[in-house]
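ingest -> validate -> predict -> emit
validate: passed (alphabet ok, no gaps, 103 aa)
predict: started
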Amino acid sequence: MSVNFASVLSGLRREHGLSQRQAAADLGVSQALLSHYENGLREPRLEFVVRACDYYGVSADYMLGRAGSSREDAEELRGIAESLRSLSERAERLADGQTAAGA
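emit:
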């Protein structure tokens, strides 16, 4: 776990423009411990993983390197939402046509 988790944790901190000092303070750990997590020298407890997921707004699967990038996930969700909108519009048109034919 440590290599994937370490790189994801470090990458998220950098993407958010945070120093190790700031992120460590926000996450309730020392800067040294956060550094050890980010460098794969120590493995965190589950409580820290959950806190980090909440802090950065990502899933545990993403944090643990078991899911695609959060950008890929967002793009996929946008595609699904667009498909659902399209299906909903088609269903409404069909329902309106049936209502008009039955009137």
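The CA atoms of residues 61 and 86 lie 30 Å apart.
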